[in-house]
Amino acid sequence: MQAEIITIGDEILIGQIVDSNSAFISKELNKIGVAVYQITSVQDDRSHILDALEVAGKRSSIVILTGGLGPTKDDITKHTLCQFFNDELVQDDTVLQHIEEIFKKYISTPISDLNRKQALVPAKATVLHNANGTAPGLWMKKGKTAFISLPGVPFEMKNLMKNEVLPKIIKEYKRPHIFHKTIMTYGLGESAIANKIEEWENNLPSFIKFAYLPNLGRVRLRLTAKGEDREFLQATINIEVKKLYPLIGDIIVGEEEDESIENQVGKYLTQKQMTLATAESFTGGKIAQQITTIPGASSYFKGSVVSYATETKIKVLNVPEDLVKKHSVVSEEVAIAMAENVKKILGTDFSIATTGNAGPTKGDSDAEVGTTYIAISTPEHTFAQKFNMGNHRERIVQKSVNKAFELLLKEILKF
Amino acid sequence: MQAEIITIGDEILIGQIVDSNSAFISKELNKIGVAVYQITSVQDDRSHILDALEVAGKRSSIVILTGGLGPTKDDITKHTLCQFFNDELVQDDTVLQHIEEIFKKYISTPISDLNRKQALVPAKATVLHNANGTAPGLWMKKGKTAFISLPGVPFEMKNLMKNEVLPKIIKEYKRPHIFHKTIMTYGLGESAIANKIEEWENNLPSFIKFAYLPNLGRVRLRLTAKGEDREFLQATINIEVKKLYPLIGDIIVGEEEDESIENQVGKYLTQKQMTLATAESFTGGKIAQQITTIPGASSYFKGSVVSYATETKIKVLNVPEDLVKKHSVVSEEVAIAMAENVKKILGTDFSIATTGNAGPTKGDSDAEVGTTYIAISTPEHTFAQKFNMGNHRERIVQKSVNKAFELLLKEILKF
Known about the structure:
The structure is a homodimer of 415-residue chains. Chain A is α/β, with parallel strands linked by helices and 415 residues long. Helices cover 41% and strands 25% of the residues of chain A. The first copy, chain A, folds into 3 domains: 2-172, Molybdenum Cofactor Biosythetic Enzyme, Chain A; 177-256, Alpha-Beta Plaits, CATH 3.30.70.2860; 261-413, Maf protein, CATH 3.90.950.20. Chain A has helices at 10-13, 21-31, 46-59, 77-85, 93-106, 113-116, 154-172, 190-196, 198-202, 230-248, 261-272, 286-291, 310-315, 321-327, 332-346, 393-412; strands at residues 2-8, 35-42, 62-66, 89-91, 120-122, 126-128, 137-142, 145-150, 177-186, 208-215, 218-227, 252-255, 276-280, 301-306, 350-356, 371-377, 382-388. Chain A has a 6-stranded mixed beta sheet, sandwiched between helices. Chain A has a 5-stranded mixed beta sheet with strand order 14-13-15-16-17, with helices on both faces. Chain A has a 4-stranded antiparallel beta sheet with strand order 10-11-9-12, sandwiched between helices. In chain A, a hairpin with an 8-residue loop joins strand 6 (126-128) and strand 7. In chain A, helix 3 packs across helix 4. Chain A is globular and about 75 Å long. The two termini of chain A are 47 Å apart. At the A-B interface, helix 1, helix 2, strand 2, strand 9 and helix 8 of A face helix 1, helix 2, strand 2, helix 8 and strand 10 of B. Chains A, B: Belongs to the CinA family. Chains A, B: It holds the Pfam family CinA.
């Protein structure tokens, strides 16, 4: 049982947008036991799309296409599907009614013929209802292969996947189980980890695939098993994961991919009914932003003072001007004062503070680009650590954000 | 002159990571006149990689591979290249020396045999120096096609592209010019725009390709021309763009893709020597974070108070408790107070404030999920607007951030 994804649109091939749709579709298919063999991004070009459909259809039982269903001239997916299936476009009255309703409810401009044309669908297609947009999804069959065409707008595509495509696949296909488990580690590089677990890795059962995914100071370790018996797969993987703890337990911060570190911070703070605030300088609000992507964050996150300018640290965070003058704004002392003061001002149990220089120029301080201090304040104490995060602005920020969560989580777990 | 990209790694096909490398590579290739025909993501599987190399090599003169060059067992790209080229791995002493230096300088764990093995390269390959990592890039030729293998770590790949791959392509290949221009619009949907510019679009010269890229309240319009005479292409596109202004000038906020709206805000604030602060509730620091991705933001951005909890609005932003009680925390009055007070506290010329409910539950207020207020304060006045941003958490936040920048930019341009 194998699927392929074809994304249609020049914007991907000229690098104007990143293809995040395919990652979402792949993840959802994997969850229901459908492996994705290949992802192919092709141009808004009829013959290129036809080639891709032909090749994918020969290999895989499900081919999901995204993009090219909009109302404008550059959208050619429906016409190309008609050519591939030797079919013609006909009006679907239910879709037309839905389009008219959307315009009435949400859109201030009047409905036009271009919009009405979105109700044209290939005669042989099963229409999939797009609750969030005007371009319907399409499900067409050639031989044993299902070709499923979805709009490229992520919000519409995701909803169609969840409410139409996945239920239909589950109903119509027998699928094996695919079980992934991901272990998040912080603090060691991939080759150092590989050395520590070499024997364990060599002795893994052959139906378990193992991979290292390094990224900015964290390495994720992924185990994947595929087979008929879900419980057996899951049990075997859990046994193997347990064996990892005596080997690298000190660097493991969590299991399961969805358990991001900010998720864990949220989970434990909620459990312990404790609260958090941040005072961010060079991270510019990125820590707060990552915290608040988690639904329910308002129960433990009180807020952040993004004190990008030195004067903001003094005025809002009450960092003494003398302290800044004496130690420089990028210093352990200022980081600690920021953490303690934001905790006091917002009345929280924990706080994170960052001060540093993300470059490209030195800004308000004399610190070298890449020098950063991260301070953590807990109900019991406050400390700051100094890091050299390299010389690449984006990386300096993201590595520091990762490190801040890592330091914080360790402290939270002590309470 | 056409290229293809092959990304290697199960993590993409199971949806664990989004393939952002391909977008970067495509964009860089386009800039030097190399069109990307297709992007293909394949599994960590030898026969699948071989198939992809075979197919791409027949179509395109440049094939760029990313991923699978790490030190661990799941990394098989080098072995597969040896099979494809009927070649064998030999040690490259310069690479070995570089790996040893990296370990001495940056890595606390001792160097291991796994790390040293990264100095093994196919005998027929030209080695490309990876200044930021231990896995070298490889350039190999089969017939007329160059196969270029790069590590999957974005930071290492980007540096290799810029310093090794692009200069070598420029030196060795004659290339046409590809000229893109993107017009950013805010406030109208794609079909409404298409209706307004229908005649213009129908009369575009045939060598100009035109596309609509809708996304959360903004539509980007892209014109692309390809040919030998760069100046002619550029002039023709500029003439066509000029004709757009009488038709839709009221919704155009900028030209060129790299000119993001936060870039423009930064550019104009720097020019006018004016400053900005933000007070963010449900946007959770995302506005501050987008502002501070721009190098040099510290010259105009003083900071943000991320007042996620109502008490933070009261304590730090001095929003009167009575005002919150009387109008609710999600209200025009509170948004305006937040904007005025953060401007006063941080001493800036402009400010943005947001308050609203991004869901999934009602949080501190009685406002419906999706109800948001955005306030802008300028040296002359303060106003707030109410929006209904739908019911999807991420979208509510991103649409509001986009809208806030749009409202702010309009005000900045008046000074």
